[in-house]
Sequence to fold (411 residues):
Amino acid sequence: MRYLYTLLMKIIWPVLLGLGVRNQKLKQFTEGRKQTLDILQKKLDPSAPKVWFHAASLGEFEQGLPVMEAWKLKYPEHQLVVTFFSPSGYEIRKKHPIASAVVYLPWDVPNEVKAFLKLVQPTHAFLIKYEFWPNLLYVLQQKKIPTFLISGIFRPNQIFFKPYGFWMRKYLGVFTHFFVQNEMSEKLLRQIGLKNITISGDTRFDRVAKIFHQNESIPFVETFKNNQPLLVIGSSWEADEKLWTQFLQEAETPFKVIIAPHNLKIENIENLKSSISQKTILYSQIENANLAEAKVLIIDAIGFLAKVYKYADVVYVGGGFGNPGVHNVLEPAVFGVPVLIGPNYSHFPEASDLVELGGIKSIETVNDLKHWLQLWEEEKERQKTGKICYDFVLQQIGATDKIMNVLESIK
Fold:
């Protein structure tokens, strides 16, 4: 089966190259991979020990970052190599100081994988949450490189647990140890004969706890908020924005509003701004603007959202009207604010848990928005709901320490 899979990957690659002519993201995806080995040769010290972390995209990088930081603290002589599968992660974090080199994951064919591993020669390989590339895992096994899964999560509908998934199941045997988020994941792995498992929890709780304690100020947000209650709409997609612009047209609200869209294309930002009747300012145009008098601020830039949440009194996290669903709810939850999301959140245990506890409210209509925002105009009600979120995050911190302790015992 691996040979058929490899043939398919070889066929797909020139197709992606062709599509990249008209698609900027695909062009980054293919052109970036052509530079991987050159970047590694320029930035790595051949004599230094190296450890490799792989993240599918930005969210998985943030999930793995606490372990990267802990590893670097314990082994400062090691160079960290970070790879990304997607351009959205790579383009944002390609200059992150934790890593000696940040590159794209090689395309999953044997010669590309072997060339990458020959150059890096990692002492350990860490894959974050889910990334199960057959040729990559096969070569890691051949080279006897200790391989670990961080914050893994498994579900019954995955191919590994289907009768026809036997050929993918065997690649799970490559892992030296699985660090999983929950009991369900452990149970599923044990059902197929794997025993090298620790329920460590989710390292994202450690990540958001660190952000909480950084206490960085953002002057333009403080000026815009102007001591008024603030609603932050984070990582919004078109379906989220359609709901909120309808709400802003229909309802009077005491909240000032910050929108941080997921799609930062110029046409999307312009359409969003034109659909809001209240005074709206773009972050890119704040230099001479009167922020304090504006009702809505659209942040048409990256890198602010996790820090902006600390100023919020209520947060809406986008993605919940799409597939696979809602974005990171832990980033606002750690600040002890009530959170709203769309209806698609079942793939995310932390969101499901907080909905059940009452810290997050799932909404589907503008009337739902009106109901909760009217309730949360009262500070006492906001604090009551927000405390549920804060306490939940506080109780889950510690996954990184568990992982590092087990790694030390394995070494």
About this structure: The two ends are 34 Å apart (CA to CA). The CA atoms of residues 161 and 192 lie 8 Å apart.
